[in-house]
Automatic annotation (TrEMBL):
Start and end residues of each Amine oxidase domain: 34-469
Protein's recorded name: Amine oxidase
InterPro entries attached to this UniProt entry: Amino_oxidase, FAD/NAD-bd_sf, Flavin_amine_oxidase, Flavin_monoamine_oxidase
Signal sequence segment: 1-19
Cofactor section: FAD
Lineage: Eukaryota, Fungi, Dikarya, Basidiomycota, Agaricomycotina
Alphabetized UniProt keyword annotations: FAD, Flavoprotein, Oxidoreductase, Signal
Chain sites annotated for binding FAD: T35, V251
Molecular-function GO term, any one: oxidoreductase activity
Entry's Gene Ontology BP terms: polyamine catabolic process
UniProt record similarity statement: Belongs to the flavin monoamine oxidase family.
Domain of life: Eukaryota
Length: 513
């Protein structure tokens, strides 16, 4: 299975382009998100200090990104997170700790426990208590979870999460309150609806994080920005103004072979490397933002095309602090639109104890198809829709004009092309291993290459370190290519759940094999 790419032409492509001298390095780390920063840290720890980190943006952090928004009573702007916002799964005393939680504490990130029972529910006629449906969903979920364990241990065919829910007796159909509850429990986490998600691997993903560490999510509101911890990690091995970090550098072409890798950038510069680790998102790979030479092999293209890139859009509003109209004792508001599932469903108040009290900041999240719709609209169009929903939620209240309004457009960012990855129904570890495996001396790593933590920051952390370790071993003459599969099959055999196929962390769960 282990791959070899036989391409005689590449030795020449990598070494010689007439009239241009490329910067040389042992390892090119492509991207300075958490994966790239952890990969270079592993290289550095293994004594491989001859590396370059190449990054599109002007700062470290990738999808952990913030902006200034609105202002406080003294005219100072607030910082809000546009990408990752939670540490998901913390840890228990004496038990395994989420590495992200360890780092959040090391860098003193201000954060607060997200209390999911602190929720007020609404329909289009105002407050409307349908919280009992949350318990109904949880009962069905417990069945889906066990059923997913059975699919895994018996090596059975996967199905959609929707099928799993139906078999468990959860059938929301035209009950829009039930649809809103389902969105809150599922789509809000996976950035896809249950029809578009794998039953088995959605549960694997939940179990690995929340049953290994803990079922808590802590919301980070640090005014220095969540990426403080990624910068902290970077500067454990980089010097200030380290010339090994190339910011504002857009990679356009990657030429790979069994002998090396050449990187060409939009500014005309180039790099030749013995090895490279590409940490660009699944969305970037799917969108052909970067050209690979030679074209990626069929099995690799299948790996990239099989998985999906979700979009999660947070829409921020600031209201005058003396005209806050929502009940600030709740952390969450859940809205059930009468016609459209996923239409401005989950609202979070930052004007709350433990967050940014007095800020007047409220934000609403949409995902998937509603994200694409909203991200294609102008700010004014979206603001009008958002205010119309608030008028339905608070029928006898004058909703003031917001003093600030902003949302990112993740699906359109050429360096992200979405928010985080998801596994469609019927996927297998072999299919995923094709997304993960190297081609020649080019390795791939990112949240999307983690079979168990995909989507979460802990995915980027563990996959970055793993790729850095493997490539450091290669530099030190222990070449260890990844497995890949030319011919795919419809389910994963129980014995395949091992490190060869990227199944690294779930050994803590006893599946009975
Ligand atoms: C809206 C949103 C909410 C999220 N919420 C959470 C959360 O609450 N908790 C959680 O754990 N996770 C969350 N995530 C997921 C988390 O942010 C990601 O899993 C993680 O940051 C991915 O890190 P990465 O290094 O793999 O990828 P990235 O951070 O995308 O790093 C890749 C880097 O490559 C660079 N790059 C791309 N193309 C090029 C190019 N052509 N040339 C040069 N450089 C390039 C990018 O600029 C980027 O810096 C969220 C993500 C989003 C977007
Ligand atoms: C975090 O806070 C502690 C206690 O205030 C302090 O000793 C430590 O230096 C801080 N660490 C960082 C990285 O700011
Ligand atoms: C969470 O919120 C609920 C409802 O407001 C409250 O009863 C409970 O005490 C809160 N839990 C924690 C840990 O703050
Ligand atoms: C998920 O965890 C539940 C509860 O421990 C278990 O019953 C189930 O088998 C697990 N499923 C998977 C796919 O890991
Ligand atoms: C790093 O660069 C910045 C901006 O160019 C400069 O202000 C700073 O003094 C430099 N720091 C060091 C340690 O050289
Ligand atoms: C990079 O790829 C583009 C698009 O395929 C191509 O036009 C260009 O010639 C390539 N550049 C290099 C330096 O290979
Ligand atoms: C998105 O999908 C939901 C079903 O999950 C549907 O109700 C809604 O109308 C869709 N929105 C768009 C913009 O297609
Ligand atoms: C709004 O006002 C109308 C008319 O006074 C009243 O019937 C209705 O109950 C009020 N709705 C709410 C949510 O307070
Ligand atoms: C993982 O399983 C596959 C298929 O059963 C096997 O070929 C491979 O050697 C195993 N790898 C490890 C590390 O056990």
């Amino acid at each position: 299975m282990a791959g070899r790419i036989l391409l005689g032409v590449l030795a020449f492509a990598v070494s010689a382009t007439v009239g241009q001298t490329c910067r040389e390095t042992k390892v090119a780390v492509l991207g300075a998100g958490l994966t790239g920063i952890e990969a270079a840290k592993s290289l550095s720890n293994a004594g491989v200090t001859d590396f370059l980190i190449v990054e599109y943006n002007s700062d470290i952090g990738g999808r952990v990104a913030h902006t200034t928004f609105g202002q406080d009573a003294n005219g100072n702007p607030y910082t809000v997170e546009l990408g990752a916002n939670w540490v998901q799964g913390l840890g228990t005393p004496g038990g395994p700790q989420n590495p992200i939680w360890v780092l959040a504490q090391r860098y003193n990130l201000s954060n607060t426990y997200s209390n999911y029972t602190s929720i007020e529910t609404f329909s289009s006629t105002g407050a409307n208590d349908f919280t009992s449906l949350l318990n109904d969903f949880d009962d069905a979920y417990a069945y889906v979870e066990q059923d997913a364990g059975y699919i895994l241990t018996e090596g059975l065919q996967d199905r959609s999460f929707r099928s799993g829910l139906s078999l468990a007796g959860w059938k929301p159909q035209r009950d829009m309150a039930a649809q809103a509850v389902e969105w809150w429990e599922f789509d809000w986490e996976y950035a896809y609806c249950p029809e578009e998600s794998s039953q088995e691997f959605a549960i694997v993903n939940y179990n690995t994080t929340f049953y290994q560490f803990s079922e808590e999510n802590n919301y980070v509101w640090d005014q220095r920005g969540f990426n403080t911890f990624i910068k902290g990690e970077a500067y454990t091995y980089l010097k200030p103004n380290d010339t090994r970090l190339l910011l504002n550098t857009v990679v356009t072409n990657i030429t790979y072979s069994d002998n090396g890798v050449r990187i060409d950038n939009a500014d005309g510069s180039c790099i030749t490397a013995e090895y490279a680790i590409c940490t660009f998102s699944l969305g970037v790979l799917q969108n052909d933002d970067v050209t690979f030479s030679p074209a990626l092999p069929a099995w690799k293209q299948q790996g990239i095309a099989t998985f999906s890139m979700g979009t999660y859009t947070k829409i921020f509003l600031q209201f005058p602090s003396d005209q806050v109209f929502w009940d600030t004792s709740y952390q969450f508001l859940l809205y059930a639109d009468p016609y459209t599932r996923g239409y401005y469903p989950v609202w979070q108040s930052l004007d709350a104890e433990g967050f940014l009290p007095g800020s007047g900041i409220l934000f609403v999240t949409v995902v998937d198809n509603e994200s694409y719709r909203v991200e294609a609209q102008t700010d004014d169009e979206t603001l009008a829709e958002v205010l119309a929903v608030l008028r339905l939620m608070y029928p006898n209240t004058t909703i003031p004009e917001p003093t600030a309004f902003f949302y990112p457009r993740w699906s359109l960012e050429p360096w992200a092309r979405g928010s985080y990855s998801n596994w469609p129904p019927g996927t297998t570890l072999e299919m995923h291993q094709n997304l993960r495996a190297n081609v020649g001396r080019l390795w791939f790593a990112g949240e999307h290459t983690s079979a168990e933590y995909f989507g979460f920051l802990q995915a980027a952390y563990t996959e970055g370190q793993a790729a850095g370790d493997v490539v450091a071993a290669c530099v030190n003459r222990v070449y260890a290519p990844e497995a890949y599969y030319e011919n795919l099959r419809g389910s994963t055999t129980p014995t395949e759940y091992n490190a060869t196929n990227g199944w690294i962390v779930s050994s803590f769960l006893t599946y009975g094999f």
